[in-house]
Structures are given as structure tokens and as C-alpha cells.
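Lab notebook, bench 4. The sequencing result for the construct came back, and we need a structural model before the next group meeting so we can plan mutations. Quick request posted to the team channel:

Model the 3D structure of this chain.
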Amino acid sequence: MRVELAALVVEDYDRAIEFFVDALGFEFVEDTPSSTNDGRPKRWVVVRPPGGETGLLLARADGAQQAAAVGNQFAGRVGLFLRVDDFDAAFDRMAGAGVEFVTAPRAEPYGRVAVFLDVSGNRWDLLGPA
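Done. Here's the predicted structure in C-alpha cell form:
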């Protein structure tokens, strides 16, 4: 058993793809036309970290309730955790690509960490070895 996908509600498919693929370095896995339960067009868009098994389904907000969740899916907390082998290289590459870090890198018992925002404003931890 494993978690295959986690959904992340976004404002715009293409902006989200650009962020995750270009700024974070994720793999672009799939972009397939689909439709909502009531027949409206949507896309099935999946990205994932290189070598990772779990992907992110980038789901465009549909309706006011979902639009209100964009950027606040974790109620202002860090809700996603990106572990890397080389923290400094990942931090420098991401910062150079325009990723907004809201904390400076720091050492914690579980490793090095810095909090960044995704394209929608959700908080992530960038995690590296201690």
C-alpha cells in the first residue's frame, strides 16, 4: 500500500506546472483532458519529485469553495515536505528560480529546514540532512 497522489488545488494549471517543473525541478508526468462529474472540461495534471513515487495532482479550483482554499489548504501551516539530499544546492537553485522562502535555513534535530511558498501560497518545508 502506498499514497500514489495527493491533490493540490491551484488557480491555473499552466502556472502551477511551470512552478513545480521549472522552479522546483519536479518531473512532468501527465496532462490529460478530462471532465468534471457534471461534464465540464478539466485536466488531469500530475507532477512529482524526481525519483519519487508519490505525485501531486494539480487540480484547478472549481467553484467558490475550492477557490477559497487555494493557498490555504493547510490553514496557514506547513503542509508539504520536500526532502533533498543536498540542501544548499536545492535552496540556491530554488531561490535563484524565484521561489519565495519565508524563513532562513536553520538546523533542527531532524535536519536543515527552510519554509517556502508554492505558486498558490501554500507553505512547504525544504528539508535536508542534519
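The mean pLDDT is 96.
Will bring this to the meeting.
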